[in-house]
Amino acid sequence: MAKLKIARLGNPVLRQIAQPVNLKELNDPDGDLQVLINDMVETMRTDGGVGLAAPQVSRSIQLVILECEENKRYPEAEGIPLTVLINPRITRYSDETAMGWESCLSLIDFRGLVRRSREVTVTAFNQEGEEMVIEATGFLAIVLQHEIDHLNGKVFLDRMEDLTQLAYMEEFETYWAEKE
Fold first, then answer.
1. Which domain does 110 fall in, by range?
2. What total number of domains does the chain contain?
3. Any domain includes 6
4. Which residues are tagged catalytic?
5. What is the Rg, in whole angstroms, of the alpha carbon atoms belonging to the chain?
6. CB 155 within 8 A of CB 104
7. Exposure pattern of 87-103 as b/e (b: 16+ CB <10 Å)?
8. Which CATH number belongs to the domain containing residue 80 in this structure?
9. pLDDT 10s digits, 148-164
């Protein structure tokens, strides 16, 4: 496995609509797609993320990795087991929304206040090419929306209603985190 370079805001790959993955590529356990999945897991863990979309490692394909186990950036977050999502689609958004602070490995120094649906339903394929449906609430719903946005050329800044609620991480921890 190898740690991959994270594409940062300004890299055009982050603004592209990602292409669907050909599920036949999953059949080769040593193929490029399986190697990419393993490298993305290592990259996400090394960089302290809870999610990573393929465009963030300069691959414009519909692939998302999720995992949250005692994450330093989100210490209060509920756990998310390692999950691989291929060609994910949000098929339902709840009407009820909530505001929450988000950050991103592609904008690592920033955190911003974003409104997201409290619940979503996602359909996708797993690493073995089996179809799956996820009914997500809370933190998992937020992470899914954030990562699937990357597949649609969006970053959390695009969802912010008020850019005065964007902060560098150090300032967030000093001035905002205590208020939350």
1. 12-176
2. 1
3. no
4. 147
5. 16
6. yes
7. bbebeeeeeeeeebbbb
8. 3.90.45.10
9. 999 999 999 999 999 99
